[in-house]
Specification:
By secondary structure, the chain is α+β, with helices and mostly antiparallel strands. The chain has two domains: 85 residues; 237 residues, Bira Bifunctional Protein, Domain 2 (BirA Bifunctional Protein, domain 2, 2-Layer Sandwich). The protein contains twelve helices and ten strands.
């Protein structure tokens, strides 16, 4: 029995892979294995012999099974170690940039802005670019007689002659995503919604398609103070300075009450823009406390819930941060422009990467 024990324990210790281990299991403790055959001989023994040999054989079987199991784990560990060594990849290696083009400033800034708001607990929401006039206007407290509808230079989709349903529109802002997100998720909610918007307008600072980012935070006790803090945190992180003063300028939007234009403190001394210091103010977007009628359209009880919304221009943020003078060039697909203002692929901003505070 000692010979048997030594033979199998040595063989198990030396087994090179799982197949060899399985062969040993069959040879030792399988149905016709050596240990099993020995156990069958117990029947021919005298009761005295059996009293000694029985427990000893059982112990041997347990010991071999234990050794098999331990070796199996050791082999799996070794295989994993080998794979980890083999498949090692240096993820910090720079990419070969020129072969894969550049990241457009709008994509880059969208990522940057999203990373900052994600860190403050905002999730990303989306809506369609072709929107019903209900979502784009009515649900946002702009009934069809409202003057804001014409002020927005809306693009209307075609309807066939005789089809008298109200036409769909190319969304004029990202605010309809407020309604869609509230309908989907209810309150409380904290979302941002970056995306394309459309208005019939074209000059150095306006293109018929541009980008906004909507923010929405609804809970039981959210106030303008929370809005201001969120915008200050955002601005400081985005422009990579310690602090930026945010000024609210009284304004009017049908979907917020009160409403405020958002200004960041800045200086234009020497023709260059510096944020966070100086006597000038930079217009960054619109904001306010979500109007009770907006909450009502989305099926939210305005006696229980309240909160803020804001809308920022992504392209404008990109122009300011990266010193890009003409908005029209953003969307002309000029390779020289893209090479100059584009970003290295994989140079993606993350909070933990240290790019953003
Ligand atoms: N939707 C507004 C615009 O496009 C901006 C805004 C969003 C204002 C949210 C207030 C609240 O001008």
């Amino acid at each position: 029995m000692d010979d048997l024990r030594q033979k199998y324990l040595d063989a198990i210790a030396g087994a090179g892979d799982e197949n060899a281990l399985e062969d040993l299991r069959v040879a030792a403790v399988g149905k016709k294995g050596e240990v099993s055959l020995k156990m069958r001989e117990l029947g021919k023994m005298t009761p005295e012999e059996r009293q000694v040999a029985g427990p000893a054989l059982n112990a041997l079987k347990d010991e071999i099974n234990g050794a098999l199991a331990a070796k199996k784990v050791a082999l799996a560990d070794a295989a994993l170690d080998a794979r980890l060594k083999d498949e090692w990849l240096d993820v910090t290696m720079p990419p070969r940039p020129r072969n894969v083009g550049t990241i457009h400033p709008v994509s880059q800034v969208t990522e940057e802005v999203t990373a900052i708001f994600a860190d403050m607990g905002f999730a990303v929401a989306e809506g369609p670019q072709i929107e019903s006039d209900w979502y784009n206007f009515d649900a946002l407290n702009m009934p069809d007689w409202h003057s804001a509808r014409t002020e927005m230079d809306t693009f209307y989709m075609h309807r066939d002659e005789g089809d008298n349903r109200p036409p769909h529109v190319l969304r004029t802002h990202t605010s309809p995503v407020q309604i869609r997100a509230l309908q989907d998720q209810g309150a409380p909610i904290r979302i941002i919604a970056p995306g394309r918007v459309y208005r019939a307008d074209y000059d150095q600072t306006h293109t018929p398609m541009f980008h906004q980012i909507e923010g929405l935070a609804i809970d039981r006790d959210i106030s303008m103070a929370n809005l201001k803090w969120v915008l200050e945190e955002f601005a400081a992180a985005f422009f990579e300075v310690d602090h930026i003063e945010v000024r609210f300028r009284a304004s009017h939007f049908p979907f917020t009450e009160p409403s405020a234009e958002i200004d960041f403190r800045c200086s234009w001394d020497g023709g260059t823009l510096k944020l966070g210091e100086g006597d000038d103010w930079l217009e960054a977007g619109g904001s306010g406390m979500v109007h009770p009628n907006v909450l009502k359209s989305a099926g939210i009880d305005s006696n229980e819930w309240q909160g803020f919304a804001f809308g920022l221009g992504i392209d404008r943020l990109a122009m300011l941060k990266y010193g890009i003078p003409d908005l029209r060039a953003f969307f002309e697909s000029d390779l020289r422009w893209l090479k100059h203002y584009g970003f290295m692929p994989l140079d993606v901003p993350t909070l933990h990467g240290g790019r953003v505070r």
